[in-house]
Structure formats: structure tokens, C-alpha cells
From TrEMBL:
<keyword id="KW-0812">Transmembrane</keyword>
<keyword id="KW-0472">Membrane</keyword>
<keyword id="KW-1133">Transmembrane helix</keyword>
<feature type="transmembrane region" description="Helical">
    <location>
        <begin position="7"/>
        <end position="25"/>
    </location>
</feature>
<protein>
    <recommendedName>
        <fullName>YtxH-like protein</fullName>
    </recommendedName>
</protein>
Length: 64
């Protein structure tokens, strides 16, 4: 891919992201989307914490 085509693709992707953000900020469902995103983020954080704890426990068991 040439430099110019990469620049065009980057511009198009940036414009699409800008449109999506603009739509999101002006949407009536913004609060619903934020709530869903926060819920999913919290679930993901809990999964990572659990995996981290399991890994720490496994390491501790191997060292003792």
C-alpha cells in the first residue's frame, strides 16, 4: 500500500470515528449506551482481577 493510499484510509477511518462520536454525543440513548458500556467494563475488570488472583495463587503454591 502506498503512502497516499494509507493517508486516505486513515482519513476515512478518522472521519468515520468522528461521525460515530458525534452521533453518540447527540443521541437520545447516550445514557443507556454509557450504562451498558460501564456494565461490560466492570465485568471485564472483574474477570481480569479473578485471573490475576488465580495466577498469584498458582505462583504462591509453586513457591511453597
Amino acid at each position: 500500500m502506498s503512502r497516499n493510499s494509507k493517508a486516505v484510509v486513515s482519513f476515512i477511518v478518522g472521519a468515520a470515528v468522528g461521525v460515530a462520536v458525534g452521533y453518540f454525543l447527540n443521541s437520545d440513548k447516550k445514557e443507556e449506551w454509557v450504562g451498558k458500556l460501564k456494565y461490560q467494563t466492570d465485568k471485564l475488570k472483574d474477570k481480569f482481577r479473578n485471573k490475576k488472583q488465580q495466577l498469584e495463587d498458582a505462583i504462591e503454591n509453586e513457591l511453597t
